């Protein structure tokens, strides 16, 4: 394994009840980064995270995390923290019981960091888990993930249930963590990429069990544009089969396309070219062409 690659996935497939959920995936994740994992429901995100964290093993291909196969491998698993959506917590425990368990489960547990995050989220150590709102339970799960100090920390939808102010506390805190710690990699699975854009370096896009995109987020963001103007000035100069979204009214139209679909012959002085929000691009990229006539 290369010194800076902590995850190497080679031609991995996984089946669930004879349904191929993961299809021949190849992926590398480098040390010291914040990665985004995006996909629609059923794209395979949860299955991929379970494969990475050794909860299940692939039906084909190889997975190496920190140079070893993660399935039932204590050497690997003690360096991974996986915070699932609706992370299972005993409702009868108090918060300090949860943190005590974390201290014994994670070899790099940082109690002072746990206390800092409790204070950030205004969580009282003596509060019972069953008394916490959905947002407070989510915040407690974040405390576990951050205080684990694991070199590979994976969050599945970590902001579900958090209000805007609490989400901002999390975003600011994770940026500080990333800036001050050299040996830590985060993978953030989310349906809502827009709020994460300023933090994520690379984004992995899953679609129907395959990796559709895997690149720096700024590069992916710049791939798509809106072209607006006369249909006669636009449509003859783009690849029709590659239009991601089309809206027309009379002879005027707006077309979402990738830059590679635009031919050199287009007179760009007659066309308005605008950037596409990343979330919109990914939604269109992972569905069939949608045509709207107004």
CATH class of the largest domain: Alpha Beta
Largest sheet: 6 strands, mixed
Structural class: alpha/beta
Evaluate the radius of gyration.
22 Å
Give the overall shape: globular
CATH architecture of the largest domain: 3-Layer(aba) Sandwich
| CATH topology group of the largest domain | Rossmann fold
What's the number of domains?
2
Instruction: Determine the number of helices (DSSP H or I, runs of at least 4 residues).
Output: 9
Strand order, main sheet: write it out. Answer: 5-6-7-3-8-9
Helical amount among residues, as a percent range? 25-40%
Distance between the termini: 55 Å
Low-confidence stretches at least 5 residues in length (pLDDT < 50)?
none
Which whole number gives the mean pLDDT?
A: 91
SSE ordering? EEEHEHEHHHEHEEEHEHEEEHE
Provide the β-strand percentage band. Answer: 25-35%
CATH superfamily of the largest domain: P-loop containing nucleotide triphosphate hydrolases
Number of DSSP-assigned strands: 14
Protein model, in words:
It is a single chain. With 294 residues, this protein is an alpha/beta fold. It folds into 2 domains: 5-220, P-loop containing nucleotide triphosphate hydrolases (Rossmann fold), CATH 3.40.50.300; 223-293. Helix content is 28%, strand content 31%. It has 9 helices and 14 strands. The protein has a 6-stranded mixed sheet with strand order 5-6-7-3-8-9, with helices on both faces. Strand 11 (245-249) and strand 12 (252-258) form a beta hairpin. It is globular, with a radius of gyration of 22 Å. It starts with a strand and ends with a strand. The model has no long low-confidence stretch (mean pLDDT 91).
